[in-house]
Amino acid sequence: MILNRKTGLRRVYCVLLTASLVFAHAAIADVANLGALKDNTLIQDSAGAFSNGIGPSFFSGRIGAPVNSIRRGLIAFDVSGSIPAGSIIDSVTLTLFMSQTNAGAHTINLHPVLADWGEGTSFAPGGGGAPSTAGDATWKHTFYPNSFWSSDGGDYSGTVSGSQVVNQIGYYTFGSTATMVADAQGWLDMPAGNFGWILVGNEASPTTVKRFDTRENFMPERRPVLSVDYTPAPNVCSTCVGDMSVDGSVTGADIQRFIDCMTGQTVVNCTCADMDANHSYDPAADVPLFVDRLLAAPPCD
Fold first, then answer.
1. Is the dihedral of CA 112, 117, 119, 121 positive or negative?
2. Distances from the Cα of 268 to the Cαs of 100, 117, 147, 229, 248, in angstroms?
3. Whole-angstrom Cα distance, residue 155 to residue 140?
4. pTM of the entire structure?
5. Over the Cα atoms of the chain, what is R_g?
6. pLDDT, tens digit, for every residue of 64-121?
7. Could you give the CA distance from residue 259 to residue 264 in angstroms, rounded to a whole number?
């Protein structure tokens, strides 16, 4: 009787869990596509009077003006908020849409920024910027009006993390480099030091500027994307696979998190949902094993 009851419960759980995944199932690949956390333009001006915190574009290179013509883009991504702690970053690419230029092909370089910076409420459609507002990064300020860069034009490493030749309007991807991977790994492991990248263009000649669409752009498909390919951290629940809450046992409290991992609603501790340890998430294989562990007595050895 007990055996039949357990068999019946197993069937019910398997049916219910599988049914909950039928319409939402998506295999969790170890790739995260991140939208920008913040972006801005450093507009050359000794007083730091101009910025473009929530504008639809940021700029890199030089405009045609005889003075104060340099523009440098800033961009940052919340890596630690999207990728499980302890993961290993395998590759990183940055995709931007360049939406306006009067110049030919010029190289844009990514450099790690060395100080935190802000995105205020200044708004301008063009490269001239708008009056700086509280919290804006400017040529002079990290956060307008009272916090400053060590050097005008931004504090950034001389190391080039990645580069891309940008010509005419279209999408451009900065291919993964060892330095870009190291940058992203550092942002994951030490979030407090995540200040993003500065985009430095051709500043030797006038009229080289490139306009890139920002996270605020009204066309979502043109917004910046950081694609991170990573290997998840070792399974913290290796002695009790299926223990989504890591409390030492598999109970009904773990069911919702298990479903969330299977459907891609979360990436937190999802290695615990890989019941057959094959580095993929498949209801046909993992649901029966999860239910077996749920009904086991004791639920974890």
1. negative
2. 39, 28, 35, 16, 17
3. 10
4. 0.73
5. 24
6. 999 999 999 999 999 999 898 888 999 999 999 999 999 999 999 999 999 999 999 9
7. 9
